[in-house]
Amino acid sequence: MIARTITTTILTIGLAAPAFADVTLKQTTDGKGMGLSGKMSGVAYIKGSKMRSDAVMGDKTQTMIFDLDAQKMYLFDSKKKEADVWDMAAFGADIAKSVDTSDAKASFKPNGQKKDIGGKSANGYDVEISTNAALGGSKDMTMTVTLAGPVWIVPGAPGSADYARFYKTAAEKGWIFSDPRVAKAQPGQARAMAEMYRQIASTNGIPYLIDIQIKLGGSGPMAGLMARMGNVSMTTTTDAVEVGPLAEDLFAPPAGYKLNPKK
């Protein structure tokens, strides 16, 4: 579950036009660690303050929809005709109780390198984010999550303004971008990922290559077990970016789906 959540989260991240426009990003993620291996494809769609992420996992497509204005997150897959609906205002307040932001550390700096990715010139940045959180909400088990690695960003790429606007708004509202069920058990990881999104958005570019490692450590028997399971490494490549109108109904569960309120 944790490995799949990391992948789904990364697939959402790949998301200079003079005006705002809808954006579609097609990506490939290759990862290993904690039961994760092999490549996975995904598509992210951004329309104003809404985003949809579709991640293909075998014969199933996992969908996450983020509606910042309504403060709702929808989760569903292609195998069931029902969707979980999360109140993110309430969830954000709840998860904040488990994360010690006073000890959080974040570094996002240009490294002076350039790389050609898909025919586009990308600037290199080194990211390192570390945060502490109570594992499963228990103060007796503190987990330290460290996220680090290079990120390659194409400045002013088509869709950059929409990407930046969405993630900056999300950061202001305290959003996370993973399955809330897993985020409750791994709040530090969720917050570290959200901070990386915020830092990338500040560059006003599109990340075309993300190559990161997530290291887990901490105190207590469960935290020690998680640390011994090893690191998670993830490489995500943006294969294509398309700018053009997206239908509004793409950003809601299909008609007829049963909605399950969650908190």
Summarize the structure.
The protein is built from 6 helices and 12 strands.
Keywords, please?
263 residues, 12 strands, single chain, alpha+beta, 48% strand, outer membrane lipoprotein receptor (LolB), chain A, twelve-stranded mixed beta sheet
Task: Describe, in plain words, how this protein is organized in 3D.
This protein is α+β, with helices and mostly antiparallel strands and 263 residues long. The chain has one domain (2-262): outer membrane lipoprotein receptor (LolB), chain A, CATH 2.50.20.10. Helix content is 24%, strand content 48%. It contains six helices and twelve strands. The chain has helices at residues 2-13, 88-96, 160-172, 180-185, 187-201, 221-228, and strands spanning 23-32, 39-47, 50-57, 60-67, 72-77, 82-87, 99-117, 120-134, 142-155, 205-218, 232-243, 258-262. A twelve-stranded mixed beta sheet has the order 7-8-9-10-11-1-2-3-4-5-6-12. α3 (160-172) packs across α5. It is globular, with a radius of gyration of 17 Å. The two termini are 19 Å apart. The model is unreliable at 1-7 and 12-19 (pLDDT under 50).
